[in-house]
Structures are given as structure tokens and as C-alpha cells.
Amino acid sequence: MPFSKLQGRAVNWAEAEAPGLISLRFGNSISVEKQSEFLISPNGTFASGFYQVAAGTNAYCYSIWITNSVTKTVVWMANRDRPVIGKRSKLTLHRNGNVLVDPDGSTMWSSYTVSEAYAKVRLLETGDLVLIDQRENVIWEFRLSH
Predict the structure, then answer these.
(1) Which of 46, 50, 26, 51 is nearest to 37 (CA)?
(2) What is the pLDDT of residues 99-131, one digit of tens each?
(3) Is residue 47 classed exposed, middle or buried when 0-12, 13-18 and 19+ CB atoms within 10 A define those classes?
(4) What pTM did the predictor assign?
(5) Structural domains of the chain, ranges and CATH numbers in brackets
(6) Residues 12-50: pLDDT tens digits?
(7) Which letter, b or e, does each residue of 6-15 get, where b requires 16 or more Cβ atoms within 10 Å of its Cβ?
(8) Which Pfam families does the annotation name (predicted)?
(9) What is the C-alpha to C-alpha distance for residues 107 and 84, in angstroms, rounded to an integer?
(10) Distance CA 108, CA 102 (A)
(11) SS3 assignment, position 94
């Protein structure tokens, strides 16, 4: 499913016409630099990736947003109190869970979970961000839905 351009606040990766990622697998990363690196829910209602905190700045938060909103409604930020500064920041799925690091390697946010080598992160159609094992069991989740 193509990812459509969003109107309103300009954010480089949101303007890319790219399909997005269905899941993030163990050892893989989503980085600030690559516009095509974001998770998308199955029907494209939600997306998750790096959100530029303010236009013209180099500060980013890992976020979940509604894709069809005109003003790009962000519904969750992992590191809202400590945005990563600079390029080379990335969210990586490690054995100790999802880890968001800044360019110098400092951990800015983590799910603090122990994952298996076959674990992956998915963004559900409900907006929930989940870490699942090879049997599709949920290891960790951020629940947007209640």
C-alpha cells in the first residue's frame, strides 16, 4: 500500500512516497536519515517513525501518528522529554528490547524487555506498538487502544 503525502507540517520522511515497513526484525533499525524507514499499520491508518519536534531543528522523537490526518496528529512519543539530537539516531531491536539511541550511543528510551532472536516489532491497526516472538505472542506492547 503506498504511503500518501501528508499535508500540514513538513517532515522529510513523511513526505516520502514509500510503502513503509510491516515489521522491524531483530538486529534491524529505523534511522532518522532514511525516509523509507518507518512502520505502517496493516491498513495504513497509523505510522511510526522519527518525528521532527520543531521545523528547522535537528531534534527528533520516535512517534506514532495518524496517517490520514491533515495536520499529522501524533498520538505517542517514546522520548518526548529527551528528543534525540542529530542524524545517526536510530531505533534498534536488540536482545534487551527496543532501544532508541542518539549519535553518541547513549540510550534515550528502551522497552526494557528481553527478546528472542526471532522477535519483531509491529504497528497494529489499533495504533498499538508491539514486540512479538516467533509464535506471534506479545512480549511487550504500548497500547494506544483501550
Answers:
(1) 50
(2) 767 778 788 777 777 666 668 889 999 999 998
(3) buried
(4) 0.76
(5) 12-142 (2.90.10.10)
(6) 333 333 468 888 888 888 888 887 789 999 999 999 998
(7) beeeebebbe
(8) B_lectin (PF01453)
(9) 10
(10) 7
(11) strand
**C-alpha cell recorded at residue 22:** 510491516
- Residue 29: closest CA among 20, 38, 18: 38
Per the document, the length of the chain is: 146
Sequence-ordered list of residues with C-beta below 8 angstroms from that of 119, at least 6 positions apart, any chain? 25, 26, 93, 131, 132, 133, 134, 139
| Cell of residue 52, nine digits | 521532527
Amino acid at 39: L
Task: Quote the cell numbers at residue 47.
Answer: 505510522
Q: Are 52 and 59 in contact (CB under 8 A)?
A: yes
Strands 129-132, 59-66: pairing kind: unpaired
Grid cell digits, residue 109:
528510551
| Identity at 53, one-letter amino acid code | V
The SS3 of residue 144 is: coil
